[in-house]
Design a protein that fits this description.
197 residues; alpha+beta; 6-stranded mixed beta sheet; 4 helices; 22% helix
Amino acid sequence: MRKRWPSYIACVVPIAVLGAAFYVTKPLPEPPNIPRNSPSKSRHSLRFAGDRGARDIRANPQRTTIEELLAVKRPEGVDGGETHRRHEPFETNLWMVEAKVIESVVRADGDFYLVIESNSGARTVAEIPDPKHLQDSHYRKEITAARASVLKMLNPTAQPKPCSLLATITGIGFFGQQGKAGNGARLNPVIDIRWID
């Protein structure tokens, strides 16, 4: 006589197979707080000036203000997954800003993240990449020197540190994440920082 399997086994086996298939095919979640097409994720090489377009960035810095940076119109396509395109003229120029550095922190990716503020209270961000990301950067030497200067003056940590130091900051224009308000315009990477007594 042929042996019959208990009915509960006949139910359990298909469920187990389906569960295994779901486990294998389920996509991994995105990292927290990073939208799928965010500029910081899809335009990675621009943040380190490692893209081909960085070779054509104009060498003479243009003086500007935080207010003027925040007034630049955010172009279409920045949030659509474009990888290497720089948007003229903001992302193809060096910009020089005199501002107060009011906070520093080391981000999870190793970048020094500086919050800078104008006399009127307008704020934006200046970022200095971790040297380990600079293998292909066209400004590796300058970024490394700027980072050493910030390390000496501010010694950033993983916890935000308030400060109040006036500086002249030079960096490449970059459209990052917009945050709560504004156009996301910032200086990234910073290639020079000079402290004002």
